[in-house]
Amino acid sequence: MDMGSPENRFLEEGKSAELCACLQIIQETTADDSLKYSDKTCRELARLIVCRNYAPAVLELCHLVVGAIYGGSHDQRYEALFFASGPARAGGFRAWFAAFTDQHKAIDIGRQEIFISYADKPFAVTYGRMPLLSALMEFLMTAIGYAPLDETLSPLLGGLPSHKQVSDAANDLSRQVYSYLGEHLPPVQEQRKSQSFLQFASDRAAAELAAATINDDTVLDYWMAHADGDSDDRGVDVKTYRSVFRMAAHLVRVLRYAEDQYRMNGALPIGTDFESGEIDPGDLETALAEIELPDQPLSALHNVVSAGVKITNKREMERLQEALHGEDVGRALPKSILRNAVFGDAQAGLVQALRRAGPLPMAQLIAALPDDDYQTRRKQYSQMIDHLQQMMLASFHVLARAGKPLAASLAIALHPDLDISDLAQDPNEPDWGDSNVVSFHAENAMARFFERLEADDNGELGKLSGTARTAFKSISRQGFSQAEMERADIVEQFGKAAIALIAVHKELSRFLNNHIASIDWDQLITVDTTLFRSQFTTLYGGQNG
Question: In whole angstroms, how far apart are CA 507 and each of 17, 125, 479, 504?
């Protein structure tokens, strides 16, 4: 099974290490010196398990166990069909059953299937399904264990059972699988939400799903169509706009990650032309758990604050978290980000009002919303740019005083046009052409950087140093006193802050300048206010309140 293929990369997402290992064992299983299961079979099994659509296959498997017992040799157990029939191929299973002539009278061995005539209800299992059912048998033995599996199947072994007995055994097995997956897959409710949203986006995009398919209109229209609970999606609770936005933002990241992997491996696009190798949008729910991403800079800033350097206060961090969701989300969902900030907060306030049962009627509260508008939020985000720059200057002051190389990175981030190329190597130093002296040159370059900071008051670096010193002294927060900046642990935290500040400043600047600058926010707030008030009235103002 090629784990580099697009669908398989989706199927890898969200599973625990143990479940991954369990499926890996199956795909690497051999029979007669070849892989026992085809790539297609392994993909089908992974889809069944990860999408939790295993119950029908478990029922088929239990009927196949009956067929193996009463349609094969009387001196063999059911395991012989699954582990002594060679590679799991339809033709191999057909040949295995055809080799026996003394089957139970209730078993009919046909050209395409085996047919079991139970007293209460017949059942057929096709040879084409048997490779998947065989893989499922191996999965059950690995996941829940042979002893519990055999005990559950034991009622089928002491004489031809009834159809109901087979169904009871299958239900018992399905409950055990459900319990196992509860510890190894994301919650069912989250999968259902994402599956519902993906299907909605897929339908709107004429069955061609990609990160670009999920846009601001998709998010808003899905919430409008599903929030009141009148849709056909049972068990899907998407009443709040914020929950829909967060789900959409996550899916944009997942899809973009997958598309990047596809390009790296030369894979085909997402769609429904399965014969040409496109990936079924309906299978994307298998990628819904959090993908592994590097530590986010906002988390790093939060850790710095916790460690005693107050780079941001609570409100400042809230504004950054509102605006920053990664470059892919900022580019794909700029309107949704501000809708979440303004109307997501408004809806949260309504929910609190419902719980408190205050004196004002709900209709009056809804008519007064929102408290902020989009332009106000934009202004607040722009003010955060100024705040971040002040913190970068202050961090530069601390790190430069401590002689830390990160000071040079901050200098370039604060002044991208700053020319320090002449610091790279003194022309009087010999160029040995040897990689072993690279670190020597780097150390000398940093030494010259700090020398210029001290000596060149009127130069670019000297002016930067003075501005940074002034910025540091102007801040009255924990971690910003003269005594604290002398402590090694505080200097270390400023170093961590520097890396995060550069990344956050860059992302927020790009969001403001590239993704939201051209939108007519005044017109949009007018349209959205009417729309959201109407939806809130539907949800809380009477018929559903």
Answer: 33, 56, 25, 5
Give me the number of domains the chain comprises: 3
Of 302, 297, 195, 303, the residue nearest 251 (C-alpha): 195
Mark whether 235 and 122 lie in a shared domain.
no
Please give the DSSP secondary-structure letter assigned to residue 515: I
Torsion of CA 405, 408, 409, 414, to 10 degrees: 150
- H helices of 426-487, in order, are 438-455, 460-473
Domain boundary among 182, 208, 229: 182
Q: Is 472 exposed, middle or buried (0-12, 13-18, 19+ CB in 10 A)?
A: buried
How many angstroms separate the CA atoms of 401 and 137, rounded? 66
How buried is residue 507: exposed, middle or buried, by Cβ count under 10 Å (0-12/13-18/19+)? buried
Half-sphere exposure of 532 (CA within 13 A, CB side): 29
DSSP per-residue codes, 455-470: H-TTSHHHHHHHHHHH
The string of DSSP codes covering 288-307 is -SPPP-PPPHHHHHHHHHHT
Task: Specify whether 33 is located in the same domain as 139.
Answer: yes
Domain boundary residue among 145, 167, 182? Answer: 182
The SS3 of residue 344 is helix
Q: Is residue 2 part of a domain?
A: no
Residue range(s) defining the domain that contains residue 271: 188-287
94 vs 114: CA distance, rounded Å: 9
d(CA 150, CA 307): 55
Structure tokens at 269: 């696009």
Q: What is the pLDDT along the chain (545 residues), one digit of tens a residue?
A: 444 433 444 445 556 778 888 888 898 899 988 899 998 899 889 888 887 889 999 999 999 999 999 987 766 789 989 988 899 999 999 999 998 877 888 999 999 999 999 998 899 999 999 999 999 999 999 899 999 999 999 999 888 999 999 999 999 999 999 999 888 876 666 667 777 888 788 788 775 566 778 999 999 999 999 887 654 454 556 889 999 999 899 888 877 776 765 554 444 444 444 444 444 444 443 433 334 343 478 989 999 999 999 999 999 999 999 999 999 999 999 999 999 999 999 999 998 888 776 667 888 999 999 999 999 999 999 999 999 999 999 999 999 999 998 998 999 999 888 776 666 555 555 444 444 433 445 667 777 788 777 766 677 888 899 999 999 999 999 999 999 999 999 999 999 999 999 999 999 999 999 999 999 999 999 999 999 999 999 998 753 33
Helix 241-265 to helix 345-356 angle (10° resolution) is: 140
Cβ–Cβ < 8 Å for 24, 17? no
